Amino acid sequence: MARTVSLANLRTWARQLSDTEYDSNVTDSELTALANRHLTEVYDRLVDAGPADYYAATTQITTIAGTTQYGLPADFRNLVKVYVEESSDERRQLFPLPDASRGRVKAPQSVYTVDLEYIPTAPMLVSDSDTFDGVSGWEELIANFMARDVMRKQQRDPSFALQAIAMLEARITNRARQRDKGGGKRTTDLDEALISPFPWGWTGQTKLAAYRIFGDNLELYETLWGLP
């Protein structure tokens, strides 16, 4: 990471694959719309098939005493992890709040710094120089999707594009999860195992214990019991 491709490159690639380099009926605006449509599809495939950190981002939230809800980032797609900073060099993971435990928590009573790791929404390509990271050549799938749609619109046989799409989709499924080659086939988080099934009752220096996603907000809670 990163292996980027520009919007201009994607349009040229799609024209080459569909043999429409000199066809004035295939406009830049049409290809740009196709590129963004299929970029989102490929992005979703990569996020779902691969490790969460392919496109992960981090933002910080500072709690306010007595306030539970904090707005999620405007580009929030889905959550990876939530941590509270115990000190300048130590942080602790927060856990999802089970519905049955909502009577055992309260709003944060102090100021805490919370690190939110999340997957942002797919980028939008507008300018010719805007880029997308295909990670390992998977941007080729976008170009083949674009070429397929152009050829279908022209009522031409898109078989070769369909074959390339099938091969690339299989490659994503087979290869995307192999980013970390150094770990074992299975991993057990011993910290979670030790505190399960009541992680929201355990705290460190801070009393912040759990979170919940509700609409466009991240809700943060302190425990009513645990360390003083």
The low-pLDDT segments are 181-198
Number of domains: 2
Q: Can you summarize the main beta sheet? A: 5 strands, mixed
Number of beta strands: 11
Could you tell me the mean pLDDT? Answer: 84
Oligomer classification? single chain
Order of helices and strands: EHHEEEEEEEEHHHEE
Strand content: 25-35%
Helix content: 25-40%
Round the Cα radius of gyration to an integer and report it: 23 Å
Q: How many individual helices?
A: 5
- Which structural class do the helices and strands define? alpha+beta
Distance between the termini: 45 Å
What would the principal axes of the Cα set say about the shape? elongated
Task: List strands and helices in order, with pairings.
Layout: E1 4-6, H1 7-18, H2 28-49, E2 57-62, E3 69-71, E4 76-87, E5 90-93, E6 95-96, E7 105-106, E8 113-120, E9 131-133, H3 139-153, H4 159-175, H5 190-195, E10 208-214, E11 217-223
Parallel strand pairs: 6-10
Antiparallel strand pairs: 1-9, 2-8, 3-11, 4-5, 4-8, 7-11, 10-11
Characterise this structure.
The chain has 228 residues and is α+β, with helices and mostly antiparallel strands. It has two domains: 4-52 and 126-177, no CATH class; 56-120 and 205-223, no CATH class. Helix content is 32%, strand content 25%. The chain is built from five helices and eleven strands, in the order βααββββββββαααββ. Strands 3, 6, 7, 10 and 11 form a five-stranded mixed β-sheet that branches. A four-stranded antiparallel β-sheet has the order 2-8-4-5, with no helix packed on it. The chain has a two-stranded antiparallel sheet with strand order 1-9. The chain starts with a strand and ends in a 5-residue tail after the last strand.
